Amino acid sequence: MPKNDALINKGVVVIGDQDDKIPSPIIVIGTARGGTSMVAGVLAKLGVFMGDRASHPVYEDVRLSEAFEKQDMAQTALIVKEYQTRYARWGWKRPSIIDHLDEVDALLPNARYVFIYKDILSIAQRNSISMLAEITEGMDRALSQYRKTLRFVRQKSPRAMLVSYEKASAYPEAFLSTLESFCGISPSQEEHQTALAFIDPEPEDYIEATRITKSQGKLLSCDSRRVSGWARYVHKKQHAEVEVFVDDRSVGVVVANEPSPGGGAPANEPCGFTFTLPAGESLSEDASVRARVVNDVVDLGNSPVRVG
Q1: Domain boundaries, position 271
Q2: In a structure prediction context, what are the per-residue pLDDT tens digits for the chain, which is 308 residues long?
Q3: Are residues 206 and 237 both part of a single domain?
């Protein structure tokens, strides 16, 4: 028997006065790794300006956010005025502003808010993968920030759309259609379909772009006693630690801080490494050798190699 569509929970609720049809800023509010990039990306695909320096896959307005976070309210107000002059519809996404909702409201009193809520364990696990954060601390932080949004909604009664990330992923058409109506957007069919295709519950490019352990490197050579290559972090400036495995057994860790060994390594960056096996260990003929940066999830290029 088919389900009554009206009885299906699609995880989208619109609140506040919706009679005012004048275009207004669209503020995306959520905790870090909580789905704000999905909402901001969808808005961008629908033609909403999300910032001069907002780019795939996070769509974050770095220019406006930097001025706001420096408490340079004069510069912040100038940027807002510029956006309002240049664009009929523009948006702002920055997860950290969830802790400054009253200040955002004072800056943009006529804003429309999209609050995105995600399963707190999922948020904490994503922060563990991307930022090596502790799981229960991440869950507690998400809960605390979500309580702030509820206090703001109760006190200010803003024009707002409350969205379940999980339900938006399960019913993307319902989420997208409600978002378009809430923001007063009339996209082309192509824009609508592009935005729909952007809704992905496991966006690999976003995960790759935001995890601090993301590394690059390559195994270059190995003999019976030594393994050499290069490795570096992509998103942080410190020497990478490389773990070496022989036949899938960890045999030790080495810091990649030697002069560039070539083989695709940056020419002026000390990121080479030479690992000498511990006493009593040796690489037998046909042994499998691989390496990866500690805490990364991907082996270095050329892994595995076989001795001989």
Answers
A1: 215-306
A2: 456 676 789 999 999 987 777 779 999 999 988 999 999 999 999 999 999 888 888 899 989 999 999 999 999 999 999 999 999 899 999 999 999 999 999 999 999 999 999 999 988 887 776 666 788 998 999 999 999 999 999 999 999 999 999 999 999 999 999 999 999 999 999 999 999 999 976 655 655 566 677 889 999 988 888 899 999 998 888 999 999 999 888 899 999 999 999 999 999 999 999 999 988 777 887 889 999 998 887 899 999 988 76
A3: no
Counting the structural domains of the chain, the total is 2
Please report, for the domain that includes residue 137, its CATH number.
3.40.50.300
- Given 210, 238, 272, the domain boundary residue is 210
Pair 292, 153 in one domain: no
Q: What is the 3-state secondary structure (H, E, C) of the chain?
A: CCCCHHHCCCCEEEECCCCCCCCCCEEEECCCCCCHHHHHHHHHHCCCECCCCCCCCCCCCHHHHHHHHCCCHHHHHHHHHHHHHHCCCEEEECHHHHHCHHHHHHHCCCCEEEEEECCHHHHHHHHHHHHCCCHHHHHHHHHHHHHHHHHHHHHHCCEEEEEEHHHHHHCHHHHHHHHHHHHCCCCCHHHHHHHHHHCCCCCHHHHHHHCCCCEEEEEEEECCCEEEEEEEECCCCCCCEEEEEECCEEEEEEECCECCCCCCCCCCCCCEEEEECCCCCCCCCCCEEEEEECCCCCCCECCCEECC
